[in-house]
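Supplementary Note 3. Input sequence used for the single-chain structure prediction.
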Amino acid sequence: MATGRLKSFKKLNKDVKIIIISVFLFALGYSSISAYIPLLLKQLGAKNNQVGLVYSTITGSAAISALIGGLLLSRFEIRKYTIFTTIIIAPFALIFYYANSWKLGIIAGLLDGISYASAPAYSLIIYLRSKKSEIGYNFGLFSSAFSAGAAIAPTIGGFLARNYGIRAPFLFSFVMLTLSSLVCYYLTPHRLEQERIGVIESFKKIFKERSFARILFVFMVLILFETAYDPFVSIYLNEIHRINYQSIGLLVSLVFSINFFTSPYIGMLADKKGSSFALGTSLIGYGTFLILFGFAREFSYVLIALAGIGIFKQIYTLSTIAASRNTGNLPPHIAYANLHFLRTSLSVFGPTVGGFLANYNIRSVFYGTATVFILFGLASFIYHFRKNKLAI
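The predicted structure, written as discrete structure tokens, is reproduced below.
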């Protein structure tokens, strides 16, 4: 049955397919450089806490852009909006390519974050074009599209970095990010027939939907800690385990290659048993392998840990699934504007917190994140079995 559903990609709505292609190209471009941004910043003289500052700039501007952009979805034709917001990120790769100071990473980070205004549009299109019974599955495919691009890209980035220097992958990234935007031209033109709502009014509507608000709070905390450790993976691999650029790319590819296959199944698990059960499963597995990753002294343990992280790294996927199934009476563009804003808002502090921890002991970044994930995973299981519902 699961296999049959995985074979139904050809039957997907045209716009869902286009979004999947777009996010695949985005991941191909972004992930070809994601492991090298911290390393380039370090070469340009940044300390760990300054690397964290650049990433906090990205998440801070992303949170604000997602909120404002999501609220604007009712005012613009969605295809044009998506094309415009997705093209904004392309120049950020060129800024890194030509950068002669780590401070230019802040400017690049602002462009990266502003482009996050496209996220509510991506989610909205998937939501509008999906049957209710397949929301989890379609968002799982959406996540897998990112994972597929992110699985291939680090190998390409590693090859370019090793043979042509650490800046070379940023040119490849620019081309892929541009193509990611251009394919959105083929989306079906569509305009929401929804009332125009301001920021304050949208917050009021969110807090009236208690189930939705509770979901947002949970994922705000989880993403805070995920962004605390994520920027320091490549630094940890390079400085502690002495792994070269190309091998780092291959290891990051391993994570996303595995994630590509597991995300649709996590989506189906959420459809079948509920988001809280799927979240509990993911978080406990995620936390366990993060502990192993931080503990690892030998390469074999690093490899096992990253494979496990690839299986259970599903927080973003599950946040979208859980929120989509609990929108209640919220207009969809309001739901996704606040989803992408609020779940990202606390993560502004994540890289900075991670940076200070890394300056003290880089392994503690992974241990701290793992502890939080396991505690939240246990809480999700308790909630699931007490409420005996199919959704958070």
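The chain has 20 helices and no strands. Residues 135-164 form the longest helix (30 residues).
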